[in-house]
Amino acid sequence: MARPLRIEFPGAFYHVTSRGNERKAVFRNSRDKGKFLSYLESAHDRYGAVIHAYCLMENHYHLLLETPRGNLAQILHHINGAYTTYFNIKRGRSGHLFQGRFKGILIEGDAYGEELSRYIHLNPVRAGLVKDPSEYGWSSYQYYIGKERKPAWLTTEWVLGYFGGRGHPGYRGYREFVEKGLTMELESPLREVIASTFLGSEGFIKKIRKEYLEDKIFDKRNQPAVKQILKGPSPGEIEKAVAKAVGKEHVFYKKLCIHFSHQYSGMGLDEIGKHFGMKGGAVSQSSRRFKGAIDGHKGMERTINIIKKELHVEC
Questions:
Q1: What pTM value is reported for the model?
Q2: Which CATH number fits domain 222-311: 1.20.1090.10, 3.40.50.2300, 1.10.1750.10, 3.30.70.1140?
Q3: Could you tell me what percent of the chain has a pLDDT over 90?
Q4: Element (H, E) at 80
């Protein structure tokens, strides 16, 4: 079975999520959440994890973190492993608590840090738990608006720096930024993720490919993901697969081709745009809109899986 590709290097930024097995609750009360936060603190103290933002929900959590030592797997092994041990001992159970391996998206921090922090802090609102994120006590938002004094293991300076720094101007600016998300329909920044691995500009992705992927030897279980990123199917191959699945006259033919090229070709936006006769930015926009339009559409999901199988990309 293919494993998620992990790219680790000093100074990397990640958006990390981990869900409960079978989507079951991993936090049953405030004591559980407090214990989990203690493991974020120990990850900071022992392994140098820089925690920029967090949100604990009932059956999953979100983290925005930085790894000065390039040790993401070590950090998450500590956090998830220690918390699972605590949870199992407390409740007399055994076995896995979290669903598979954590999901860690490598991000271009300066380009996506603000948006991801807002996305994380608005989780309780999207879930219908509160109307204002400041009402939710289990996220880092309270420290970003000066409502509470932040713990030493949490770093707010980086994100708040875009809003005037810590202090009233920064707190107010950040709060306005987040509250703006309550009054407008925001698309998840994670819709921009490429190959389930990257979130960043074309230049960022090319840099990571060159420095950390090309000419490297990988675990065989990672080979499908590496192949997808480095040598994905070309737009021409994608067009053939889509035509075989739905025909060139299908109303979504071009949109399917653009979406698959964006997600799986491994090419830059400008390269893809040139092939389809459009601007690079329009490629990303078209792909996002198409994905949003077909979410939950069973017939289109089956079609997409057929195309994935034809292209030999991850299903």
A1: 0.72
A2: 1.10.1750.10
A3: 64
A4: helix 72-91
